[in-house]
Amino acid sequence: MGMISEFKAFAVKGNVVDMAVGIIIGAAFGKIVSSFVGDVVMPPIGLLIGGVDFSDLAVTLKAAEGDIPAVVLAYGKFIQTIIDFVIVAFAIFMGVKVINRLKREEAVAPSAPPAPTPQETLLTEIRDLLKAQNDRP
Question: Which of 41, 73, 102, 123 could bridge 59 with an S-S bond, Cβ 3.0-4.6 Å?
């Protein structure tokens, strides 16, 4: 099998396609969470702690000089990124928890035993008849 055909077989497997879809959806979900944190969660938190905008929190290590920009330690953006991560991790945790619960319920629910075949039914009848004959005095 040539390298191209091996790659084609690998690339069109269900797992690879599912992974690609998951990565694309995950990237979009990350943008949604970042917007949620930056535009919905952080403004009220900043208001509660005195009108602080977290994205503006920074320490200037070296002031700008001429054409050289200032060296800034932007710890507010870091705090916002940590909150983004916590929200994404919690959402993924809840999704995995739901999936695990569904798998457990699926595993716990026993399937009905298969119906006996005609041969098994006939053998059961023969057994019962023989037992009834042997039990007669």
Answer: 73
In terms of C-beta density within 10 A (0-12 exposed, 13-18 middle, 19 or more buried), how is residue 51 classed? exposed
- Using alpha carbons only, how large is the chain's radius of gyration in Å? 32
Q: Which of 94, 84, 78 is nearest to 41 (CA)?
A: 84
The answer to whether the pTM exceeds 0.70 is no
Rounded CA gap, 24 and 30, in Å? Answer: 10
Identity (one letter) of the amino acid at 48? L
Any idea which residue has 């949604």 for tokens?
Answer: 32
pLDDT digits (tens, 9 = 90+) for 45-54: 778 877 777 7
If one counts every other C-beta atom within 10 angstroms of the C-beta of residue 84, the result is 19
Domains for the chain: give ranges and CATH numbers: 3-112 (1.10.1200.120)
Grouping H, G, I as helix, E, B as strand and the rest as coil, residue 114 is coil
pLDDT of residue 119: 92
The residues near 76 (Cβ < 8 Å, ≥ 6 apart) are 53, 54, 55, 56, 57, 58
